[in-house]
Amino acid sequence: MTTSTTTAALALQDCSTMLRRQLRHLQRYPSMTLMLVGMPVIFLLLFVYVLGGTLGAGLGGDRGAYATYVTPGILLMTVGTAVSGTSVSVAMDMTEGIIARFRTMAIFRPSVLTGHVLGSMVQTMLSVLVVACVAVLVGFRPAAGVGGWLGALGVIAVFSFALIWLGVALGMSAGSVETASNTPMPLMLLPFLGSGFVPTDSMPAALRWFADHQPFTPVMEAVRALLMGTPVGANAVAALLWSVAIAGGSYVWAIRRYNRR
């Protein structure tokens, strides 16, 4: 076995160890996962049962049609909420001294952040599946087959990976846990300022321009098209490009902050 192979194996082992650490934290402190699932479900029930009749009629359908329209936005809201949890978890590690302890150990240094990212990915995708099941119960009726579902989950997973790295970077940059919990909050609002809840062509011109060009809109449109079996068009490419840009920039930002601190 070559030296590079041995190094790669040790790095993979360290990342696996940090992932198990994060999964144990999720088991011991389930409140963050409950919030991650509970908030999108509350918004889903609010929009479907309180506003769904009126908004569904505006879309030329009924409450069930609106549930089908709004579900991709709710799923992306779930992802946005996950970023806050990631940021808080990283900030806690940075402020409680455990990172200083890890620095004295002979481990692959990025494995600490990688463990946060992979643990948050597991938490986020499980939450997305739970929210999707609730959406089906309240009237969401996708037309996609297995391929469409897998494609939609793939788009959500790639975008989640990018936003979670952003959450890591925000947590590294925060001076306290309180700051880390507040900084990612705008990400939970972006689905509202996109096509998540109403079509963008119903918005004023300036807001419509922003909604059409912000990162959440092509992701929601790609997921909506995949779940409904309609043409995806350029939305999948735009969603991938946004994901790569956010993930790459956030990774560089997070690693630099980690090395400095």
Describe the overall structure.
This protein has 261 residues and is an all-alpha fold. It has one domain (3-260). It has twelve helices and no strands. The protein is elongated.
Reconstruct the topology from this structure.
Elements: H1 3-28, H2 31-50, H3 52-58, H4 63-96, H5 98-103, H6 111-137, H7 146-173, H8 177-182, H9 185-189, H10 205-213, H11 216-228, H12 235-260
- Overall strand count: 0
The total tally of domains equals 1
Instruction: Indicate the structural class.
Output: mainly alpha
Runs in which pLDDT lies below 50 for 5 or more consecutive residues are none
Helix coverage percent: over 70%
Apparent shape: elongated
Q: What series of H and E elements makes up the topology? A: HHHHHHHHHHHH
Q: What Rg do the Cα atoms give? A: 19 Å
The pLDDT mean sits at: 84
Q: How can the largest sheet be summarized?
A: none
Q: How far apart are the termini?
A: 34 Å
Hey, roughly how much beta strand do the residues contain? under 5%
> What is the helix tally?
12
Describe this structure in a few short sentences:
The protein is an all-alpha fold and 261 residues long. Helices cover 79% and strands 0% of the residues.
Give the key terms.
261 residues
